[in-house]
Backbone:
């Protein structure tokens, strides 16, 4: 275990609102009293049974066992909820617990669409053309905002998800073709030119089965766009350098760029672009060899835990905190030119 903080003590890292607390209590009751059951989840990359325990709870204090494979370095939850019980979790508790709201709002959809614009740009930068002849499929589409960005470019779009309320919002408010289920449930008219997994692949139970279906559904020259929360990017994205903040009961896997490459390469997907954020574009290629990330990933996590409190002394954290304090004291306006807060604020809105 990385430190005593990761023990199964029921303590939460996150502050939750009423909607989230209700969802959390329902989930814990289902775990403790039934009907939720768990099953073993061996490493899907190397099938080795040699793991190191990292944590025994997630950021909400939910009991779960997070391990890292000593052979390939993939981090995963083992055991995890069975398929039917995970589907029930997504249908009843996931959105309220993670989003703090039981039903979608216009702002959520607009945020999705803005992110979809970024995904389109990344795909186009990798040489992928998006236009009226394109069929774009998104797995785990939520309300469909990301697909809306592709539809704005004239593409035909299809999405699937396990959250009925969010699917219904996208259907009724925006006329999107959104279907309940997973990629296995879709009946597509033709192979997809683009398949999008935006913060979805980490939720999948049968990773090898999912990627086999992805390969079957993808056109020969098609692209797969994948974003996953990155173990080695926890000093960004609101995690404040804390690995515990990354851990979520809904996540079956926790990737690095290397372990994602291992997973995709096992199925003959070749990376066109990839970064440690992790955001990546893949095309169809050849089976790739596995390169272990165990030592680098474990060293990173141990260093991050040891230096966790130092994050709050980083200038990237102190600067916005100082700006808010000066604003509250009425000192921001006379000092912003000297300290550069105004310029920083302008850059953050243009990025």
Residues:
């Amino acid at each position: 275990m990385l430190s005593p903080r990761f023990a199964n003590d029921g303590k939460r890292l996150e502050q939750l609102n009423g909607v989230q607390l209700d969802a959390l209590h329902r989930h814990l009751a289902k775990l403790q009293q039934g009907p939720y059951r768990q099953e073993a989840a061996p490493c899907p990359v190397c099938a080795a049974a040699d793991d190191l325990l990292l944590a025994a709870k997630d950021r909400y204090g939910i009991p779960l066992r997070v391990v890292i494979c000593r052979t390939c370095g993939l981090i995963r939850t083992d055991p995890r909820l069975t398929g039917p019980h995970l589907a029930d979790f997504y249908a009843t508790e996931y959105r309220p617990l993670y989003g703090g709201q039981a039903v979608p709002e216009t702002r959520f959809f607009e945020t999705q669409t803005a992110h979809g614009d970024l995904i389109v740009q990344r795909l186009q930068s990798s040489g992928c053309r998006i236009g009226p002849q394109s069929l774009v499929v998104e797995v785990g589409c939520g309300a469909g905002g990301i697909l809306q960005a592709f539809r704005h470019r004239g593409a035909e779009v299809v999405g699937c998800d396990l959250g009925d309320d969010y699917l219904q919002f996208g259907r009724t408010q925006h006329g999107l073709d959104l279907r309940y289920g997973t990629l296995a449930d879709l009946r597509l008219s033709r192979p997809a030119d683009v398949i999008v997994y935006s913060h979805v692949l980490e939720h999948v139970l049968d990773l090898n089965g999912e990627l086999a279906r992805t390969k079957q559904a993808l056109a020969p020259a098609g692209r797969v766009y994948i974003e996953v929360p990155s173990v080695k990017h926890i000093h960004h994205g609101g995690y404040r350098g804390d690995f515990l903040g990354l851990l979520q009961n809904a996540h079956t896997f926790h990737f690095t760029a290397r372990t994602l490459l291992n997973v995709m390469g096992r199925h003959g997907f070749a990376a066109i672009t990839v970064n440690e954020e992790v955001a990546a574009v893949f095309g169809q290629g050849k089976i790739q060899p596995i390169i272990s990330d165990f030592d680098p990933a474990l060293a990173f996590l141990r260093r991050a835990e040891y230096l966790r409190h130092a994050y709050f002394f980083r200038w990237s954290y102190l600067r916005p905190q100082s700006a808010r304090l000066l604003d509250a004291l009425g000192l921001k306006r006379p000092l912003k030119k000297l300290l550069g807060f105004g310029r920083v604020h302008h850059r953050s809105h243009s990025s």
